[in-house]
Amino acid sequence: MVKQMNELIKDFPILDQKVNDEQLVYLDNAATTQKPRAVVDAVTNYYYHDNANVHRGVHTLAERATAQFEDVRKKVAHFINAPSEQEIIYTKGTTESLNWVAASYGRTFVKPGDEIVISYMEHHSNLVPWQILAKKNGAVLKYIDLLPDGQLDMDSVKKQITDKTAIVSLAHASNVLGVVNPVAKIAKIAHKHGAIMVVDGAQSTPYMRIDVQDLGIDFFAFSGHKLMAPTGIGILWGKSELLEQMPPLEFGGEMIDWVQLQETTFKKAPWKFEGGTQNIAGVVGLGAAIDYLESIGMDKIENYEKSLIANILPELVKIDGLEIYGPLDPSKRTGIISFNLKGLHPHDVATALDMEGIAVRAGHHCAQPLMEYLDVTATARASFYLYNTVEDGQRLVEAIKATKEFFKNGIV
Amino acid sequence: MGLSRLDNLYRQMILEHASHPHHHGTLKNADHQLELRNPTCGDVLVVQVAMKASKVSDVAFSGSGCTISQASASMMTDEVIGKTAAQVEQMVVTFSKMVTGDSVDNVDDILGDAAILEGVAQFPARIKCATLAWKAIYQAIENDNKESTIGLMRHDEL
Fold first, then answer.
1. CB contact under 8 A, B3 and A368
2. B153 and A CB contact within 8 Å
3. How many CB atoms lie within 10 A of CB A391?
4. In this structure, what are the phi and psi dihedrals at residue B7, rounded to the nearest 5 degrees?
5. Is A412 a residue whose pLDDT tops 60?
6. Where in this chain does the record put each NIF system FeS cluster assembly NifU N-terminal domain (chain B) (predicted)?
């Protein structure tokens, strides 16, 4: 059954509340999304009826828990069109996924003098692991420039990726600028030079259909909680030939094949990476979130968000003194709009909007090098998701105007 | 409701301090100085202190920040001049308690005009903005090295 977008809000009990005596408008979805009843129920049902540890019991509950745990792996593989569910590794989120690529693949294969190429728009979790790897292995960390409207500069891409490049790692969609990067195109360039292509899908996976084979990339990372699953569950997808060559990072229960006093052999991927008891309830919740998203359809979600932004962005552009970061062409954006009111710190703006019941993020968005590149200390950020409406956007526009007036006159 | 609640936080005196901060700049002969960063928003504040006869004789701050952090820094500089290190410490502790909603006696006597920032207690997300300058001067005075040092925002204490 195809759901009507304007009926979705009923599936999210948390959205039906007042904040500071105003109806809540939740526009902090790039930080984390709200969970539909279906996801909360799936987690509750799991704990009420099926909870057991996976892969290690012969009893019925253990069988049920294991079946659900491994079924979601198949579901995730289908969701991002991975060739095999054995390429799907459970992690606690995008940060851990990217750290594992850097610490396992990176530490093993990056040689002194090699280059690692990222961009100025990266989230700290797709920046710091590479910085640490570069220091450890004697590699050079290079940055791709941005165009004035916030898109990746393709000339800089071609200049920075060379035969010395071992790894290119880029955000699929920016958590600040709202742009979607042409990672398929860049993956071709990376491969031509013998580099692997890693993609941070934290902001793209909630928003658009992902096909890792079509993208032609080597690793893909995303978080469950940004697409309505619980916190603490994420995915690392990697090509099986690469995963096979990578050493595990956490040793202990679950991940071993055979342990002797002085030697241990490990399971195959993905299980060799999943040491210790996993976030099984989180996995179950992720499965329910994927079901929910697919019952709507990722293409429909992307189109809906595009239409929201096409409606709201022109209204924001009209506000005198409001600076918007990233492209002003709505067709080039995801549901994220970062902005600053001239002369006003984004924290003041966010507090004012909160008084109007509107939740936005203010700060550096874990992208301090990008803030420096944009020559700002911080920005405010409104990020929309599929349960937001045109009316939410209008509330934001009106509240920004009122905020501007408040600080101009010192009174409401 | 809505924005009218903002009056509790952004009192007129606070807005005036933020737009025309006092002691904003640098000192030539600072005895103590420290840079403190607020990792949640990226704000950076540098505080310099000159001492004479065991009292704060001059103070300056620089850096960017929100209305609350700038106003709080400006008020802090007004209030600490002429105070001993021990008195400054008492002010910092009092300020910290006030904005986190603890009841404290004699707030007006101890903090002077800066007591107007007590409204911050109703806005928990903004407490760190208000305390940044006070933590900075406390750590600056603690720091005997005349060279500028980068302090760490300590979350649990003071």
1. no
2. no
3. 11
4. -60, -30
5. no
6. 10-129
A7 — pLDDT class (breaks 50, 70, 90): confident
* ipTM over the 0.90 cut-off: no
Closest CA to A215 of A186, A184, A192, A239: A184
Query: Which residues in chain B have their CB less than 8 angstroms from residue A354's CB?
Result: 125
Buried b (16+ CB within 10 A) or exposed e, A295-321: ebebeebbebbbebbeebbebbeebee
What the block records as the tokens of A398 is 């009106």
CA distance A218 to A403: 46
Could you read off the pLDDT of A244-260 as tens digits, one per residue? 999 999 999 889 899 99
Contacting A residues, span 40-79, partner chain B, CB-CB under 8 Å: none
| Identity of the amino acid at A257 | D
List residues bridging with A338 in a β-sheet: A325, A381
The values of phi and psi at residue B156, to 5°, are -95, -30
The model's pLDDT over B40-77, given as tens digits with 9 standing for 90+, comes to 777 889 999 999 999 999 999 999 889 999 999 999 99
What is the CATH code of the structural domain delimited by A40-294?
A: 3.40.640.10
Q: Is B8 on the interface with A (CB under 8 A)?
A: no
Alpha helices in A225-380 (DSSP H): 240-245, 280-296, 298-317, 346-355, 368-374
Show me where the domains of chain A are located: 5-31+297-407, 40-294
Distance CA A287, CA A109 (A): 33
The C-alpha atoms of residue A149 and residue A6 are separated, in whole angstroms, by: 32
In chain A, residues 341-400 whose CB comes closer than 8 Å to chain B? 344-348, 350-352, 354-357, 362-364, 368, 371, 377-378, 399
Smallest Cβ–Cβ distance between A355 and the set B6, B66, B68 belongs to B6
Asked if CATH classification 3.90.1150.10 holds for the domain at A5-31+297-407, the reply, yes or no, is yes
CA–CA dist A230, A234 (Å, integer): 9
Domains within chain B, CATH numbers bracketed? 2-151 (3.90.1010.10)
Q: Are A406 and A322 in contact (CB under 8 A)?
A: no
